[in-house]
Amino acid sequence: MNTSYRWIAAVAACLMATSPAMAGTSAETLIYKANKALAQNPNDAKAYYNRGTALLELEQYDKAIEDLTQAVRLEPKAADAYFNRGLAYRYQKKNAEAITDFSSAIELFRDKWAYYFERANARMVTGDHDGAIADGTEMIRIAPKEAESWFMRGLASHLKGDADAALADAYKALEQKNWHVNATKLKDEILAARSGQA
User: Are 17 and 87 in contact (CB under 8 A)?
Assistant: First the structure.
């Protein structure tokens, strides 16, 4: 596995998106309730969103994309519907589509940390390290005490080849959370490379 994909896989494992639609409710229950609501009103954007989110949780990505597409068609300002559809695309390794949807979500709601996090992940996979660095900077603006904000920007800098910026951000991540495993690995990898041990 090449270095960039190893790091991106580590980051993806760190955070799993959770949806307000899923809070305290099983996916099956949410689908049942959404089906009932759609039987009464086939233009219920919230029901499509809830069912699409449940299908995303069940890893039924094509069906999730269909429902979330209906949700944004009926409610074009539904930022979380764009975001969740972007997740479904990303899980299918359709990163260009994911980036488009994450960008749409950000246009509607600029201060949601998770939107930038997921777009940064997708951008790193496509090799857009500058874009991922910009997203990391926005994450830091929104949540400067969140270690993952600093780590993500540092990782993007590392993948770009800017070891100094990557190391500085790894240290900032460790200031926020001194046991941040990925920031520690990033720091150690950079220091080992500098000492010729990598």
Answer: yes
* Interatomic CA distance for residues 176 and 51, integer angstroms: 37
Amino acid residing at 143: A
Joined together, the tokens standing for residue 163 give 């070891």
Q: Where are the domains of the chain?
A: 24-109
DSSP structure class, residue 20: G
Which pair of tokens denotes residue 136? 């990391």
pLDDT digits (tens, 9 = 90+) for 106-129: 999 999 999 999 999 999 999 999
pTM of the model: 0.86
Number of H helices, E strands in the chain: 11, 0
Instruction: Tell me the torsion sign for CA atoms 42, 45, 49, 50.
Output: negative
Q: What is the DSSP letter of 24?
A: T
The domain 24-109 having CATH identifier 3.60.21.10: the answer here is: no
Closest CA to 54 of 38, 69, 68: 68
Tokens of 91: 């899980």
How far is it, in rounded angstroms, from Cα 198 to Cα 196? 6
Q: How far apart are CA 196 and CA 189, in angstroms?
A: 10
Place of tokens 């099956």: 28
Amino acid at 129: H
